[in-house]
Amino acid sequence: QRPIRMLEAISKYKAQISGGPNFTYDLLVNKTTPEQREGLDLRSWTVAFNGAEPIRWETLAKFVDTFEPYGVRKDILYPCFGLAEGTLFVSGSEVGHEPVVVNFDKKALERNQLVEAGGEDKAVTLVSSGHFKGDQVIKIVNPETRLEVKNGELGEIWVHGPSIAKGYWNKKEESEKTFNAYIADTGEGPFLRTEDLGFLKGDELFVTGRIKDLIIIRGVNYYPQDIERVVEVCHPDLRQGGGAAFSIEADGEEKLVIAHEVEFRAKPDINDVAAAMREAVAENFDLQLHALMLVKPGRIPKTSSGKIQRYASRLGYLNDTLQKIAVWHADD
């Protein structure tokens, strides 16, 4: 409701540790004014954690640029990775060090290949989620063959360690599938299958997205968070952090659909929004938008920590259970 309160609390109580997913830092930049920021003293803040999957470098860079005059430094940024099934924490950065950031070729990444890019032009900037701590073991595994891939290759993140849960309450079949995975050729395990895609570069873990969320159209991989990031700023009536990109099957092939919240009290013309989205999607991804659903504020399904639930959004679109304002189809 009033994001400046978080910063006021850090300033008043000299807090050292605070943070949240990407949207937290977007809100602090976009929903606070220079007048509200006056008088803030954030020099006590030493760990600004971000556990999103994946972490947006442009979000963190903009956050530091905005709040550097009030004591925020780049070396307080603490990218990390975790999930409830791993008792939250799996990997993290080094306190007091700037995050590890690497540019990768965008087109190669779409083909599941990792090719470092020299500059930021036509590149995807990925942020390391640090390295695993203590007794945790991380393996990157081909989700189909269940064979471990080489360092620097994409796969599913598998985790083993003493803080991994035993299973889901009263869900034996699901627990077996998720918590009892073994490497096919070595028999090493059991591992927790996180269903997150990523890779290891040395001992640094990079998270690229969710397996279930990955959009595959004409054999090319598209990460929904990349599409959502471009779309949410293409029209002023769209809420930042309020969109879900996913694919559905239509006419025998996968097609792109976006469900997006509108700003409070906004009454956009669906055709205007669709035109802006089509242009943004085509220009950035060479994709055609198949359908668009505008929904009421706060109605896109999210986790308790505020992360977009794309699978639930897809079901809501297909079952027409999202509180829609307007719908647009490319066929109309």
Instruction: Determine the structural class based on helices, strands and strand pairing.
Output: alpha+beta
- Approximately what portion of the residues adopt beta-strand conformation? 25-35%
Radius of gyration: 20 Å
Number of helices: 9
Distance between the termini: 38 Å
The largest beta-sheet arranges its strands as: 1-2-3-4-7
Summarize the biggest pleated sheet. Answer: 5 strands, mixed
Count of strand segments: 17
Mean pLDDT: 93
Instruction: Give, in order, the helices and strands.
Output: HEHHEHEEEHEEEEHEEEEHEEHEHE
Uncertain stretches of 5 or more adjacent residues: none
Can you walk through the features of this model?
The protein has nine helices and 17 strands. The two termini are 38 Å apart. It has helices spanning 4-13, 22-30, 34-37, 57-67, 106-110, 172-179, 224-231, 270-285, 310-319; strands at residues 17-19, 47-50, 77-81, 91-92, 101-105, 123-127, 131-132, 137-141, 155-160, 192-201, 204-210, 215-217, 220-222, 238-250, 253-262, 289-295, 324-329. 24% of the residues lie in helices and 29% in strands. The mean pLDDT is 93. With 332 residues, it is α+β, with helices and mostly antiparallel strands. It is globular, with a radius of gyration of 20 Å.
